[in-house]
Amino acid sequence: MTFCPTNAFLAGALTIALAFCATPAFAQSMPTPPEGTRAPMKDYNQRSLEIYEFRKAAKSGPERGQEIYYFKCWFCHNAFTQGIPKLNGIYQRPALVTGGPVTDDSIKNLIRNGTPNMPAYKYTLNEDDVNDLASFIKEKGFWDDDAPPLNPRYIVR
Amino acid sequence: MANRSEHRALALISFLVFAVAFVLPPPLAQAQSGHPLLGGARGVVKSNRGEPLEGIMVQVISQKSAVRTTVYSNVDGQYEFPKLDAGTYTLRIARPLEFHPFVKEGVQISGAPQLEDITLSRITTSELLPPFPEIAAQLTGSEWLLSLSGAADEKKLLTTYCNWCHSYQQIFRNRYDEHGWTQIINRMTHGAGSPLINLRTPGRLPAADQARLVKWLATVRGPEAKDPAFVTLPRPRGRQTRVIMTEYELPRLELATHDVAGDSKGHIWYSPHRASYIGRLDPKTGAVKEYRVPPVPEGVLPGTHWIHVDKNDIVWGSENWAHSIWRLDPKTEEFTRIPWKVTTPKNSPMGGNYALDPEGNIWRARDKAVSKIGALTGDIMLRYPTKKFPGTYGSAVSKDGRYFGGGAWPNDGVIVADLQTGEVMEPDSSPTSGPARGEFDPFNNYWSGGRGGMLVKFDINKKRIFEYHLPTPYASMYSAYADKNGEVWAGEMHSGRYFRFDPKTEQFTEYVLPEPYGIDRETWIDNSTNPVTVYYVDHDGWIVRIQPLD
């Protein structure tokens, strides 16, 4: 599933985001383990676990952030949609379209708390997810449709 | 009193009993099945209480090719691989679910060794499983829906309108508040096709139903929702265990892989629904050769939907967002692009599931007609008007070229046209059965996969529809494919299963997949083998080969 602003810009979004930023964000995307039962080991050979944890391309960092971006952001923030901000080069802009400064923290808080047109991701992305996603937005910020990421599991090159 | 010879006889009998009981291995445990597709490494799976476990997916991953081979333990816990290349493998259990995972790296396999017993221990003594994320990640969509609370109509809303583009896991692993779910569902149900670029009003479902779906998701997957204990589907048994699954990695991620089609040399071609790279797999080695489809016009998403290999090994594809057909000659590696004359906006689907007849013409049903179109011109050559349904989702032409068939879209029904007489038949199917893609069997019956979890047959002799519910709840279908014997094969989307259906006995056999999805958009069957060999590409990005043992 993906999120998205369905209409125009993220007007007022940053203000709302900043209003919440004093509250720590806690993702609850993972089920709560029951007490008294030993959790199973993680076997990342199971592709569905890699998919579940967004780690097909990389264990952490911008490459992992790109995978999160594809599933959580791309369906709105892509090169083709109308009236939705593109995120590439966002750090070179003087301000967010909402009027606030462009910083690591303001972007992360926007992701966590959402806007009137965008879901709040604090319930579904944990801090590692948000950090990796934000690092991808800072480094690249767009999905290159002509160069889908390479699959590290494919080794017969 | 026994004499000396009797003593000797008793001693001999005692020795033989001892030898049979304790020294000689149990004959079944080591005997090879003798099946021509098997004859490789083998072993036994048992519980930590020593009981044999049936239906466990034992998998080896080649360290050389990353190809995964999965076989299934039988009623005695025994499994046997096909002959594998000598080398190093990872030995593991796929989707262990109620058992703790088992992984053994660096297993050397050469010939047909007897591997160490695999002993599995349960995570819990309870029937329902604790909601650990490691288990959640293994669940099929059916298991998610069996586990979550909710009324039948709430779950039906989801399975009717959210069933084709992604796994249910992609929904249920998340939590959002009601505002967040509203934004997501709005985009999902108003966006055109799977890229969701162009928004449409009205959306896919009535506003009241959309609001009800949001409320339900915000309840079961809201910030405060408690995780349910997990219900799991039964493990495979009997005939379901007599199959070999081989999975192949592809060079790139997030291709939204869609179709497969085989060529005369045994290669398997696949299409990427939202990317530029098609590929050709060599199933013998796991090697893939990529071909880059030439760039699409500015402002248009690349991607190939339908793919087909004709009798001359020319590859055809449809670009659902750019609205073109391409043709690739693999010998010269040259693409030819044919603009497709549709009025739909770019980045919205042009209805790209087509059929190529034996003479090389494309067939489709759209704009209230079944049409024959010049594959190299895009011009309509012939039209058979429909009376009831505007068009079809899928398109198929019988092997003899006489019939066209497709699942009616967006209605519940099928269109079958007799191209010899011009008769167009438009029977209804049951509500939300949703027949889509399919194929004709050797007897010219049309089979279609229905999004409502229904296998739909149009019987060409009786000229009526027969419907067969899938055995697993909440499973959906997108396509169906008949083999040379008339058996029908398809992936069960969201149940993590792939079935074969024998029309003579009307029995399904479900094969459990090593990954919990089964998102099969188009199967291709190699009819040159006995039994047949079946291929599909999972939408999440790997090709699966299914080799039944009977």
List key phrases describing it.
heterodimer; A: 157 residues; Cytochrome Bc1 Complex, Chain D, domain 2; 5 helices; 31% helix; 0% strand; globular; disordered N terminus; B: 550 residues; mainly beta; 5-stranded antiparallel sheet
CATH architectural arrangement of one domain in chain B: Sandwich
How many DSSP-defined strands of chain B? Answer: 36
**Mean pLDDT score of chain B:** 94
Straight-line distance between termini of chain B: 58 Å
Q: Give, in order, the helices and strands of chain A.
A: HHHHH
Radius of gyration of chain B: 26 Å
CATH superfamily of one domain in chain B: Carboxypeptidase-like, regulatory domain
- Which regions of chain A contain 5 or more consecutive residues with pLDDT less than 50? 1-30
Notes on the protein architecture:
The complex is a heterodimer of chains A (157) and B (550). With 157 residues, chain A is mostly helical. In chain A, 31% of the residues lie in helices and 0% in strands. Chain A has helices at 13-20, 47-52, 62-72, 104-113, 127-139. The two termini of chain A are 32 Å apart. Residues 1-30 of chain A have low confidence and may be disordered. With 550 residues, chain B is mainly beta. In chain B, strands 6-5-2-3-8-36-35-34 form an eight-stranded antiparallel sheet, with no helix packed on it. In chain B, strands 21, 22, 23, 24 and 25 form a five-stranded antiparallel sheet that branches.
